[in-house]
Amino acid sequence: MAEAAAVAHDDHHYTSTGLNSWKLGFWTLIGSECLFFGTLISTYMVYKGQSIVGPFSGEIFDIPLTTVSTFVLLMSSLAMVLALDGVQRGSRKLSMIWLGVVILLGATFLGFQVYEFSHFYHEGLGLDTNLLGSSFYVLTGFHGTHVFFGVVWLTTLWVMSARGKLPPSKALNVEIAGLYWHFVDIVWIVIFVLVYLIQ
Amino acid sequence: MSVATDTAAAPHTAHHGEPTGLWSWITTVDHKRIGVMYFLTSVFFLLVGGLEALLIRIQLFKPENDFISAELYNQLFTMHGTTMIFLVAMPMAVAFFNYVVPLQIGARDVAFPRLNALSYWIYLFGGLYLNASWFVGAAPNTSWVGYANLTSTQFSPGLNVDFWVLGLSILGVSSIMGGVNFITTIINLRAPGMKLMRMPLFTWMTFVTSFLLITALPVIAVALIMLAFDRFFSANFFNVAAGGDPVLWQHLFWIFGHPEVYILVLPAFGVISDVIPAFSRKPLFGYPVVVYAGVLIGFIGWGVWSHHMFTSGLGPIADSFFVATTMIIAIPTGVKIFNWMATMWGGAIRFTTAMNFAIGLVALFTVGGLSGVMHASAPVDLQQHDSYFVVAHFHYVIVGGILLGMFSGLYYWFPKVTGRYMSEKLGAWHFWSTLIGFNLTFFPMHFSGMFGMPRRTWTYQSELGVEFYNQLSTIGGFMLGVSTLIMLYNVIKSARSGAPAGSNPWGAPTLEWSIPSPPHHYNFPSLPEVRSREPMWHDAEREAIEAVTLAEPESEPVMPGPSFWPIVVASGVTATWALVMTGVWWVPLIGLAYTTFGVFMWAFEDPFKHLKSSH
Amino acid sequence: MKSLRTLLGTWVVALLTASCTFDREAHPQSSIHPTSDFASVIHELYVDIFWWTLGILVVVWVALAYILVRFRARPDQPVPKQVHGHMGLEIGWTVAPALIVVAIAIPTIQAVFSTQQGDPENALVVDVIGHQYWWEFRYPDSGLVTANEVHIPVNRPVSFRISSADVIHSFWVPMLGGKRDANPVRLRPEGEDPEYNWIHLTASEAGTFWGQCAEFCGASHSLMGFRVVVESDQEFAAWQAELAEPVTAPMTAPVDTTEAGEAAQAPVQTAQIDPLVEQGREIFHSQTCVACHAIAGTNAQGEIAPNLTLLGQRSSIAAGWLENTPENLVQWITAPQDVKPGALMPGVNVPGGNWPATNLSEEQVRAVAAYLFSLR
User: Active-site residue B15, yes or no?
Assistant: First the structure.
């Protein structure tokens, strides 16, 4: 009877749902992040058009330029999918190529953002200039910080891959990094639409 | 972040006992030890917050008193509120989450043991950082809600608000990680047969609370970030001269703040939903209803925030909406009360201290809930808001509800933690002095408030006619202080020389009572199979489970080893935020670099290396 | 032991007395003695809800007490019947509170709307502006300004338009009704109007009512009181006329406040000039006082501190904190921060706000106090 009640689950992979705990935990964290960005975006929306002095968003936003950087980030998500595929197949070459592409595209996006920030700053929009300056820089700055951490994370994985320490058995690492990366990408789409396109 | 290392298969190892000594506690990842540390730390802060309260009560003993200065008073009440909410009530609940939830669901630990340790250390360091403000004479002084624009550098130029905004940010990180950890644990680490609708109510309420944590904390985090940018980098979020809206702070604060109320109270509801059936020897009446009521409270709790803002001028339509939602949330709360009473109905009630506190909660929380219905009525709230009437109300909720629930949990699970009963005699003293002291302190406040005494006032004029009520409150406050000391004495004494308790001293129904007291560090030699909500009350099931849970394993289950990196990362997170105070943008980056180092070391650490070395 | 018993006895007596003396005189800031339509609507609603909630509390407590007595464990008792729930009961105790909630919510929402409707045709508009830590009152119709003691006519609709000059305060006169926050006025983009909070009420009886700031606003939040003087139309008109053309020339320093009314109306020529008042007048108007304070009809036109026109008529000084007497004025002028931490007014030895210490001698302070007290 005792044996019948006991289930031999000494395996550390055991979970009651069969889902991997890291993946589940990370989804939970992403849920939390949604509220974080949701609040930042809401604040931006509440203060939209409320600035007393310029520069105003219509005067300085360069939509074609931001469209290009948005495209870059979107493409990085595609590369992320291919990178995961490479790792799962156990191809070190494909892993390194596609992880490298994600990193490059992510860094390019950050480059665009640095350019945009310094350009706006020279146009007279500082953090302390008006409500636009405060809410725009804090929102996009926190998004950029997330992209930056993603790039650091992916670079770590790239180095692991280069040293042959990213076998298919560790594909979950890449999958979770990918979850994060896609999430950050989606947040940018929302920001791009609400902040840039709908003025 | 290398995530796979924790899940990597580890080799089996020979028997190894539980290490002792300070270092073993610093590096522990055992949920039970972390739970104990959470509890002891929260009791420490309870004493700090209580001392602050007593100084407040001395000052208010007579009108136009100048026992302490207005400036010090403002720091005391701000820190009293901040401490009791963020450093006592929340972490005390988390202490029980930590110790009890894995045992209730038949898990060996939480899903992320090292992350759990990180949550604790950040809580400790964040709490110490917040209180370090006392030693530079600049404790936060703008109340626990920190309404803009009083918190701007223009009106609060000192370090006081800096400590507050950064300290709360640090603590928020800890809570979010805790939420992630417990959601994952409860979804993923339930023993075979432990279906969601078989989980003990305490686990259920932990589950709901964890969702509130991960969703509510980011909102206050953003508000704090905005305030920090206003203060350190001259942003304009709450600057009226630039068009900023101080009322936005109130919205963000209470969108967090009201779910926070349920973050505090649901765990206490969970505790007594386990305690009342155990000591009535009857299953919880209407289990699914109580579960759904808790979930419903969690959901509706998101739509009531502006009832804290009826005086801020939202207009009649918004007021009416929040009147309606607030009154609706009273219904599931009432349903819980009725179900607890129905559980006792027809039972065989044993008046242990744990049960007494649970009954005390039912009786006294009802008072706070009903006065809550009064200020749910917006026009009535225009009189009661920010008066001592409201102070009475939320102390009936927080002390009468939450603290009594936590005490109930303490007496209930103490034998599990230590293998010893707490003294019932001292427990009776503790219970009755708490009950009397509590009512003596807070009931008269209804009258002080009704007669026009606003809250957060350093003193009051004798003409107001509220001196007598304040004197009663002060006397009651000191009784509460004494009762807390009795509790402390009881804990220390019983931990050393309490009567030995077996694995199931109360004859309680849930899974945590199937394992030895205190449990092995791996909790369950092998995982039991659960077939009902009250496994320990069905003889066949109990015997089957105990045959597993009380058995000596042939080889000990593999547990992750100790880690030094959680405390390193926690100190790094705290240092990074604390260095923001310098106002120089690159200085926090030093802390960030140190944190990053810790994160990398953590990520590449093999949690099972302690097993490999012995091979 | 005996003294303890005596003490307890005293407390019990005091408790009984206190619970019987909910009388108005002993509680000038009572929220349960309504004296306006606004306050009455709230109070009726409160009483209504009070009885509902008390009823529920009694039911719960009586049932709980019965359960605890009736179902306490007895020796050798068998295991109680294992009941898991009862759908009918669950529905019952969900529906019953829901009905009570509806019974409370309907009058509540009616009151929410009725109390937030003004009478723009007939109402007297009063601007209420909160400052750290005092109240400014302006009558936009007449352009008159006063501080810390506002007069309104009885039985006539009054609309308070509430705002703040610095941080958030809250305007609360419990006997006249609920509170509203005094929010600082946000600067708005062109074409958008600034937003204000309003309280609309009609006071139903004359008298002096106590009010106090109810939103924590900084160091001296607790010392930010004020008074509302509700008076007949005639008295109100007379007061306004006096405020519009105040007696500014110094005259006899009144020693007896009961004669204040007549003294103010006495022709200036016939009044004897008190040398102390005259000296105070010279000091006040030649010092930095006038940079912040205003006294109508003089060179004092500052707007950042309380308007002192007819100060001698007010019942209190320092925003409702001290009784208005020459001695208290002396105390206040000498060391404002001792009375009210965080006050921006400089004292004799301490600077305040952006101003250096006044370095007035004791006699000079007394003279200024006498002058201010003579403004009535």
Answer: no
Is B526 in contact with A6 (Cβ distance < 8 A)? yes
User: In chain B, which residues have pLDDT < 50?
Assistant: 1-16, 615
- Chains in touch with B (3+ beta-carbon pairs under 8 Å) read A, C
For residue B543, the chain A residues in CB contact (below 8 A) are 1
Average pLDDT of A100-128?
Answer: 96
Q: How far, CA to CA in Å, does B211 sit from each of B121, B187, B208, C245?
A: 22, 12, 5, 65
What are the CA-CA distances from residue A69 to residues A44, A102, A110 (Å)?
A: 21, 14, 9
Is B245 marked active-site?
Answer: no
Domain boundary among C244, C277, C308: C244
pLDDT tens digit string along C99-117?
999 999 999 999 999 999 9
Q: Is the dihedral of CA B492, B496, B501, B503 positive or negative?
A: positive
Rounded average pLDDT over A120-143: 95
Is the CA virtual torsion A93, A96, A99, A104 positive or negative?
negative
Compute the CA torsion angle C10, C12, C16, C22 (nearest 10 deg). Answer: 70
**Does B366 contact C60 at a Cβ distance shorter than 8 Å?**
yes
Domains assigned to chain B: 1-17+556-615 (1.10.287), 18-22+43-70+83-145+174-189+205-242+255-555 (1.20.210.10)
**Which of B69, B359, B380 is nearest residue C42 as measured by Cβ atoms?**
B380
Instruction: Looking at the complex, report in whole angstroms how far the Cα of residue B110 sits from the nearest Cα belonging to chain C.
Output: 30
Name the catalytic one among B57, B80, B393, B395: B80
Considering only the beta carbons, identify the residue of C15, C104, C187 that sits closest to B373. Answer: C104
Which pLDDT tens digit goes with each residue over B419-433? 999 999 999 999 999
CA B91 – CA B42 distance, rounded (Å): 6
What is the number of domains present in chain A?
1
Residue of B78, B83, B203, B273 with catalytic role: B273
Subunits with 3+ Cβ pairs within 8 Å of C are: A, B
Tell me: do C158 and C288 sit in the same domain. Answer: no
